Each structure stands twice: as C-alpha cells, then as structure tokens.
Amino acid sequence: MLHRIGPLIATRIIMPIFNNVRVGYWINAIMLFYSWLKIYFQLDETLEDSKKKPMNWAACNPVNFISVMSQSWEMSKLFWISCLQSFIDGRNIVESNMVYQRETLGFTEEENGNYVALAGFKIYLGGLLGRPLIKYFGLSGMTTFSNFANLIAQGWGLLASTPLMMYIHVLLTGLGERKRDGVETMINRLGAEMDIVS
C-alpha cells in the first residue's frame, strides 16, 4: 500500500520541500524496496512441497497460448475477451493518458501526481469490489459489468477537458478494475476440465 501513495507524497510533501521531482522517485523506490523486503522475509511459502510441480519449460513458451486457445470455441472466445480487455487496461494506456493530460489539458506535475494517486486508490477500490461483484453477478456477469463500467469510464475520459473530469475518469475505471478476474478464472477452470491448464 505504501507505493500507492508515493505520487501523493511526492506532489504534496516532497516537491514543496525539495523542489526536485527526482527526490520523489528515490523515496518511492525506497518504499518499494521496503515492501519487497517485508514480503521476502516475512511471508512464508504456502504451497506444500508435495503439491509443487517441476518446471515445465514448454509451458512457458510465450506463444503457447495459441495452442491452448485453439482447443475449443469457448476457450478461444474467452481468450479474445481477455485480449480486448487488455486494450483498455489502465496500465497499458497510462503513458498516452499522461501525454494527453500534459499536452492537451495542460496538467501540472501536481495534477499528474493527483491523477496517479487516484489511480492507485482505484486499484484498491477495485480489490474491495471484486468479491461483492462476483457474489452478486457471478463470474460471467461480473465480467460484463466490469466491461460496461470501463466503456462508460473510457467514454467519459474521451470527453474529459479538465483535471476534475480526468480525476472522475480514473475513479470510474475502478468500477471495472476486476474485469479480467472472471475471464481468467473461467479460462483456468475450462483449461483444468480439458486438462490443458494446470
């Protein structure tokens, strides 16, 4: 959680004190390193040795998904849904968002920091919404809900002309943050039933 608030700390505390954006990067890097140390030294392996499988290098082939995808129409359909969802994934369009915000909307470093901090919050929000969405809609329904929420959010983003509108845009994407959970779970379940995904 510490690295999620890094941009907010950088824009609200570090920049006014040091007047150097690089200091914020260094502090964020230190917080990420602290998170890594905490995970590495305090979390134990939960998978029992008897359940561990040997490394299957053939399964690690980056284009192996094509053979898995071609096993059935249902599997192919799920893969294509996952592929389309990747096009609107915030992690894949953040750079173009930043360029648009800076060049077209005239965002300051502080406003960009606010946007990134809200993006971190929306990831947290998406995590909170995951279980209730699955419980209420089921896996398939949750995916449909999330895709629709992202359609609305990205449409709002296209119309955004002020920092406030972009802030609303990034928060709206939090409603669709769990878009891939349902699809990936269905892919894994179907693959296990077909004995092609372990």
Structure description:
It is a single chain. This protein is an all-alpha fold. The protein has two domains: 1-46; 65-198, no CATH class. 73% of the residues lie in helices and 0% in strands. It has eight helices and no strands. It has helices spanning 6-18, 21-42, 65-69, 73-87, 90-103, 109-159, 163-172, 179-193. The two termini are 31 Å apart. 21% of the residues are buried. The model has no long low-confidence stretch (mean pLDDT 81).
- Report mean pLDDT, rounded to a whole number: 81
Number of strands: 0
Residue fraction in strands: under 5%
Instruction: Please tally the helical runs, counting DSSP H or I stretches of 4 or more residues.
Output: 8
Give the overall shape, derived from the CA principal axes. Answer: globular
Overall structural domain count: 2
How large is the radius of gyration? 20 Å
- Written as H for each helix and E for each strand, in order along the chain, the element string is HHHHHHHH
| Helix share, percent | over 70%
Distance between the termini: 31 Å
